[in-house]
Every structure is written in C-alpha cells, then in structure tokens.
Specification:
Order of helices and strands: EEHHEEHHHHHHHHHHHHHHHHHHH
Strand order of the largest sheet: 1-2-3-4
Distance between the termini: 44 Å
Largest sheet: 4 strands, mixed
Number of strands: 4
Length: about 475
C-alpha cells in the first residue's frame, strides 16, 4: 500500500500489518473479537505513522525531503536528498522527534479520555486503551539506548561528539549487541516483557556492523585482506560499478561484499551498499534493493537517484519519478539518464524526458548513453521520443548508427518520408550494412516509397566499393 501524506511518500508493507495482528490476535472468530483486533491494527498503523511523521517533520525543517516505510516491527523514515551525514545535533533532534510525536498523541488521547470518558459499551474504551498503550509504550521503548531504536541513535550522536563518527558507530553498535542480549536475559529471568526487543536490537546492531564495519568474523580466504587503503577500495568500487553497467549483477554484488568485508569507513560502506542496491535492481529484485538499504551505516543516506528509484519500488510512482527528474537535472550522466529513461518508458512523459536530455550539458551524455536511452524509448513504443534522441546523438557525435536508428524510429512513428531522408543521412555518414537494411522490419514502411530503390542502390554501391557515396540530391532534410 502506497500513498502520500502531507507531501511525504508513505508505504505500508503487508508484513507490518501481519505483525500487528500477531501482537494482538483475535481470541476467536466472533464479531467482537475480530473488530477488537481490527481496532488494534488501525491504532498500531496510526501510532507508528505519527511516530515516523515526527522524524519526517524535523527532516523537512532541515530542508530534507523524506519517505516513510512501515515494515516488520516498526518503520523507517528515509532522507531522500541529504547531501551527506547529518551533524550530531541534527541527528539527535531527528531521533527524538519520533518518540516526542508519539508521547504527544498519547497525552492528547489521555486528556480527551478524561474530558469525555469513553463508553464501556462500545469499542471506544478499547480504542483509548490501545492508543495509550501503543503511544506511551512504543515511545518509551524507543528511547532505550540501543540501536536501531531512537535512543540508540541519540547515544551514538552524543558519543560521536566525543570520539568521532567512525568510532561512535562501532562502540554504540557493540554496546547495543551486549545490551540487547543483557535485556533479553533480564526479561526472561524476571518474566518481564522486553526479551524479543532485546534480541531484535542485538541482531539489528550485529547486521549493521557486518554491513559497514570491521567487527565481524574474519573474511573468507577469497576476500582481500582487511585494509583501509583508499586506492584499493576505489578500485573495488569502480569494478563493481562497471559490472552493474555491463549487466553483470552477481559480479557487482561479489565485489561489494569484498568491500564491506574489508572497510572500516562508513562512507565507503555507503557506496558499496548503494552499488549493491543498483545490482539488485539490475536483476529486477526490488525487494532485495530495499532490504540492502537497511544496512546503511548510521548517518549515511542513499543518493538522490537511488532514493527516488526506490520510492517507485515502494509504489510512490509520481513522487519517485519527480525525484528521478530532479536527480538527473542536478547530475546528468549515464546512470541517471538510463534510470530515468526506464522509468519514463513505463510511467512518465517521453516528451518531457527529451527536453531534459536536450537541456543537459553535451559532455555529460556520451554517444553510447544517447543510443541506449533512444533504444529504451523505441522499445517502449515512444517512437517520436526515440527519433528525437537518435537525432540528438547524430547531431552531437555524427555516428551513422544514430542516423539509422532515427530512420527506424520515424518509420515506426508513421513518418516514412522523413525516415527515408534519415536513411540517406546514415549512408552519407558511413552506414554500410545492406543486409541489415534489407532484413530490418522497422524499415518496412520505407520500401514502398518511390525514392527507396535509389537509396538502396546507393548503399549497395557504397558497400561494394567501400568508398563514401556521393550525396544525393535533396537528401538529409529530416529532423
């Protein structure tokens, strides 16, 4: 389920709803019991959403857009366009905003119940009790000094002020593992609640360290030795990026695992996790890409481009598409162009995409990128946009293949006369593949034109001689 609230994209996973039901399942299949559980689930969704909106509100005060994802046992508010790690004092305010929002909702509920006592003959009494329990209980629980709870993030920010970000990350997550296990043992020994939360905090902290920090088992023999050498890390990351672009997702994931096993720098871990997410998207596994972000080191956030793409994965199509456009406009390049083109091909406005590409600096988009995005539009059936991008590629780089692609796009778009002109341009620019012209079904609308035989003859002569053909009268007027 995905929607927008106060301009903030919100997604609610099915597992979140199932966990809410399991926390307070119906006692039987009677009407009252089912309604009681339904009221509980509604209260849990509303309370956790208010909690996350508290985080989102402070992000907005700091000028950072965010998205809310309710999953598992709680939720997460993800900054979408943070330029880097937040300073500790901002992290403290963002972390405290969630529990404060929940406590405020609890206080409002309590005051309202005192002024207008709920009737015990309806479910109003249950509603009030659930709201008080969910908001006071969840807010207090979140203030425990264990990551990934908000209290743990506050402690980490305070420790960061004293020892720096890297050490704070390690120390607080180590403490959270020990403290979480200790809480679980204490809860089991005294029959008090909290055992599950303690184990959950310990497991989450261990996973965070395993993803972005060296405190883990020794790497397997195939992995490179532990190092903080910047050149080594950069080489591994560049290899991983190259594998993503080449469509070798498994290879990219393997290189990212090498990096995560050998770095003690959160920023490097952030880059490896980002590349991992793109590799999962390359494989078509959006759930795995979303899960990868759960291991993002504290204080780090995904790029604007990835955050927007994952918004779309959560179902916030309009907001995600707008975010992709903004990310491309801010940093045009091969990755942002291809990601935006794929999204536009399925959900967006091809004409708008062409305008954005034209507005981008020419040096930011090489010939291969323009060929790729033109092909993406072509296979999506947006032939006019495909032609415009192929024509732009020819204009900027003069490659005969781009002119040929423009001819195919125009033929498919129902503009065969212009398509024939662009086929002439392709031949003039050096296109020589006669077999392809004869076999290509995209050019079928051109073959019935009066001038096609003459164009084919010129191509046949040029192919035979290997020399540039003479320019034909009237040719090359397309565009």
């Amino acid at each position: 389920m995905a929607f927008s609230l106060f301009g903030i994209p919100v997604s609610i996973r099915i597992w979140f709803l199932l966990f809410a039901v399991l926390l307070n399942p119906p006692r039987d299949w009677g009407r009252d019991s089912l309604i009681r559980t339904a009221v509980w689930v509604i209260v849990v969704v509303a309370s956790v959403l208010v909690h996350e909106l508290g985080h989102a509100a402070v992000f907005r005060i700091f000028g950072i857009r965010s998205a809310i994802d309710l999953y598992g046992l709680g939720g997460m508010t993800i900054p979408l366009d943070a330029s880097g790690p937040l300073p500790p004092w901002k992290n403290i305010l963002v972390s405290l905003a969630g529990p404060v929002a929940g406590l405020l909702l609890g206080v409002v509920t309590l005051v309202a119940a005192l002024i207008w006592p709920p009737s015990t003959e309806t479910f109003a009494d249950e509603l009030v009790r659930f709201l008080l329990f969910a908001n006071f209980g969840w807010s207090v629980l979140n203030l425990l000094p264990l990551t990934p709870l908000d209290g743990g993030h506050v402690v980490q920010a305070l420790v960061e002020l004293a020892v720096g970000r890297d050490r704070a990350f390690v120390w607080v997550h180590r403490w959270s593992i020990v403290g979480g296990i200790g809480l679980a043992i204490l809860a089991l020994a005294t029959s008090l609640p909290g055992a599950f939360i303690g184990l959950w905090a310990a497991l989450g902290s261990w996973q965070a360290l395993a993803a972005g920090n060296p405190w883990r088992a020794a790497p397997a023999p195939r992995a490179p030795p532990r190092t903080t050498d910047a050149a080594t890390m950069n080489a591994l990351l560049e290899h991983a990026w190259a594998a993503v672009f080449a469509g070798r997702a498994e290879e990219a994931l393997a290189r990212c695992r090498d990096v995560l096993a050998t770095t003690d720098r959160p920023e490097v871990a952030r880059q490896a996790i980002e590349i991992s997410a793109w590799a999962h998207l390359e494989r078509g596994d959006e759930e795995a890409a979303l899960a990868a972000l759960e291991h993002m080191p504290a204080g780090q956030s995904p790029s604007r481009l990835l955050a927007a793409r994952l918004q779309m994965a959560r179902g916030a199509i309009t907001e995600g598409l707008r975010g992709l456009e903004e990310a491309f406009a801010a940093e045009p390049g091969p990755l942002s162009a291809r990601v935006l083109a794929a999204a536009v091909a399925e959900h967006g406005n091809p004409k708008r995409f062409v305008e954005l590409v034209r507005a981008a600096p020419a040096e930011s988009l090489d010939a291969a990128t323009l060929d790729t995005v033109s092909a993406q539009m072509f296979y999506a059936g947006s032939y006019d946009a495909a032609f415009a991008l192929a024509a732009l590629a020819f204009e900027r780089h003069g490659r005969s293949e781009a002119a040929y692609n423009a001819a195919c796009s125009l033929a498919r778009a129902g503009r065969p006369d212009e398509g024939l002109d662009w086929l002439r341009r392709a031949i003039d620019a050096g296109f020589r593949d006669l077999a392809q012209v004869d076999a290509d079904e995209d050019l079928a609308p051109l073959r019935s034109l009066a001038g096609y035989a003459e164009v084919r003859r010129r191509l046949e002569e040029a192919s035979r001689s290997g020399s540039p053909p003479p320019s034909s009268p009237g040719g090359g007027s397309g565009g």
